Automatic annotation (TrEMBL):
It comes from Citricoccus parietis. The keyword Transmembrane applies. PROSITE patterns: ABC_TM1. SUPFAM superfamilies: MetI-like. Residues 70-277, 374-569 form the ABC transmembrane type-1 domain. This is ABC transporter permease.
Length: 586
């Protein structure tokens, strides 16, 4: 193609509104995604900062800065992946494939931990198992006379177990959806040919579920590697560092160049994990089990094993959903931390300033800072949901309508997925590197609400685009072509045709984004300041300062907002759970 031909095509394309829209969304993604990463890398290559690379990779500090935290991160990732897959797979099998009573309730309870902030489970663990190793208040078991060993109170064991309690829910949802697609008629036909139950499970059910097993394990691995708050709460007191806690410590103590280098390392590790996930799951053979014919789910009668399996299932959801919630609420009411014998009080919820309690801190519902943080958190979630939802709608429109150059569609697909590869704390560091100082006429955004919003939009754009694409693909192009024939321009089509028809899917995606922002600490822990507080950061600060009741009370507020929004979205959507759906003939 000659330069003249290319110039002519570009000039023609520039007069097409749809192409202009595609170029505009590409520009926005470049600012939100590409610029922060480039700024992060560039900050480590400027004069005076290049030594940070050698300090991290090849110096006497390397073991403490990189290699030990990297090994701990991988250990947490592997443990979380294995345990999440085993527990999530077991519960998915119970809910979808058996006839155990109450399995629908089990399914709902198994999805709740993922809607909670990850530090909720860490705080609940600390409230129960904390001992006197690091000083300060002790937990419930210690106050009852149980000598909790150090390995159970602090370090890799509680970190791995609480991460598993949070992320098994992700594996459960993926595996349950895959099991729901297994046609009971196929399994029954195989058994009629003389195949054993083990052979049927191995040759029919397992191949269908295998991609979900792998995806769930790799996603849990990635989350375990990049999670910040759980290792910070349960590991830092005994100097158990991961990559995320080490880079947070470097940046907050003024060692910014080394923190930026560690951020790049964490991004590369997460990207390699997600690339492996794509290669493994994308290269598998397809096992189609949903056809035009009616299918039916056939529950397995467990017989004598019914009670033990049911009891184990309820024990899992009790330990990961019910008991942590009870512990958090009761701990926020305890007059003395971890000691219920001294009685309960509402002071930490509605009390005024009392110098003899929590150094004069007011109750969470009577504390102006917490009320301001609540308003900031909700407003942040709404602004990010609206911004990401609008951008996701425009990107999904360009991608699904296929009237654009292939390079544009490919670029939008790649750039809209990149933030999913970047751990939240590393993305926060990237935004500080890019927008923490004035850029021409643009002032420094650090410490402002603006940087929280644009960072949130960048972090959640993968969810918004995937939700928008799913909703957009259900709208026939015939409807839009009819609007074109009626003389409607692109803006009017988007406003009057596309947006109303995709509203339900966009709303669901918006709630997902809202919940992600309300409960996420990793992204905002470096960006929020005392002048611009948010609930998640206040929780971490209260916990670090040993104000356990206040930390637990704020966590309960976050959990109520997150779970309430999730349940409201499910009610609005009116969709059955994947494991409750039935395949019907057209």
């Amino acid at each position: 193609m000659t330069f003249t031909t290319m110039a002519v095509r570009l000039r023609v394309a520039a007069h097409q509104p749809a192409v202009v829209l595609g170029l505009g969304t590409l520009l926005v993604l470049a600012v939100l995604v590409v610029a922060p990463i480039v700024g992060l890398v560039n900050s480590t290559l400027t004069a005076g900062n290049r030594e940070a690379w050698s300090d991290v990779f090849a110096s006497r500090l390397s073991e403490n800065l990189l290699w030990d935290p990297l090994g701990n991160s991988i250990l947490m990732g592997v443990t979380t992946a294995v345990l999440s897959t085993v527990i999530g797979g077991f519960l998915a099998w119970v809910v979808v494939m058996t006839r155990i009573r109450g399995r629908a309730v089990l399914g709902v309870l198994a999805t709740i931990p993922f809607a909670l902030p990850s530090f909720a489970l860490a705080l609940a663990w600390e409230s129960v198992f904390r001992n006197d190793l690091v000083g300060g208040s002790t937990g419930i078991l210690w106050n009852l006379g149980f000598q909790v060993p150090d390995w159970l109170a602090w370090g890799p064991v509680p970190v791995a177990l609480t991460l598993t309690a949070h992320y098994f829910s992700l594996s459960f949802m993926l595996i349950a959806a895959a099991l729901a697609s297994v046609n009971g008629d196929l399994m029954e036909a195989a058994e009629m040919t003389g195949a054993s139950k083990l052979r049927v499970a191995q040759d029919i059910a397992l191949p269908v579920v295998a991609p979900a097993l792998v995806s769930g394990a790799l996603l849990a691995f990635a989350e375990g590697v990049s999670n910040f708050v759980t290792p910070a709460l349960l590991g830092l007191p005994v100097r158990f560092h991961t990559l995320s806690t080490r880079l947070y410590g470097s940046i907050t103590t003024g060692d910014t160049p080394r923190g930026y280098v560690l951020s790049i390392v964490l991004i590369v590790v997460a990207a390699m994990i997600m690339y492996t996930s794509t290669r493994v799951t994308g290269g598998r053979r397809s096992f189609a089990t949903i056809t035009g014919k009616g299918g039916r789910q056939r529950g397995i009668a467990l017989g004598a094993w019914g009670w033990p399996v049911g009891a184990l299932s309820w024990l899992v959801v009790a330990c990961t959903t019910i008991l942590p919630g009870i512990v958090l609420v009761l701990s926020s009411l305890a007059r003395r931390t971890g000691d219920f014998t001294a009685g309960l009080t509402l002071h930490y919820w509605i009390g005024g300033s009392d110098p003899s309690i929590a150094q004069g801190q007011r109750g969470v519902l009577n504390n102006p800072q917490i009320l301001q943080a609540t308003a900031n958190t909700v407003l942040l979630g709404v602004c990010v949901a609206l911004g990401a939802g609008l951008l996701g709608l425009l990107i999904s429109y360009v991608v699904t309508r296929r009237r654009h150059p292939r390079w544009m569609i490919g670029s939008l697909n790649v750039l809209s997925f990149v933030p999913f590869l970047i751990p939240g704390i590393a993305l926060g560091a990237a935004f500080i590197a890019q927008f923490g100082a004035p850029i021409g006429p643009i002032p420094s955004l650090y410490g402002t609400f603006t940087i929280l919003v644009i960072a949130g939009i960048a972090a959640t754009i993968p969810f918004a685009v995937r939700s928008g694409t799913a909703a957009m693909s259900q709208v026939s192009t015939d409807i839009e072509e009819s609007a074109v024939m009626a003389g409607a321009g692109m803006v009017r089509r988007l406003r009057s045709v596309i947006a109303p028809l995709t509203a339900r899917g966009l709303f669901t995606g918006g709630v997902l984004v809202f919940v992600q922002m309300v409960r996420d600490l990793s992204l905002v822990v470096l960006l929020a300041t005392p002048a611009m507080p948010v609930l998640a950061v206040l929780t971490y600060q209260y916990s670090s300062e040993n104000f356990t009741q206040l930390a637990n009370a704020v966590t309960v507020i976050i959990a109520v907002i997150s779970v309430g929004a999730t349940l409201a979205a499910r009610r609005f959507e009116g969709a059955a759970q994947p494991w409750a759906q039935k395949t019907t003939a057209p």
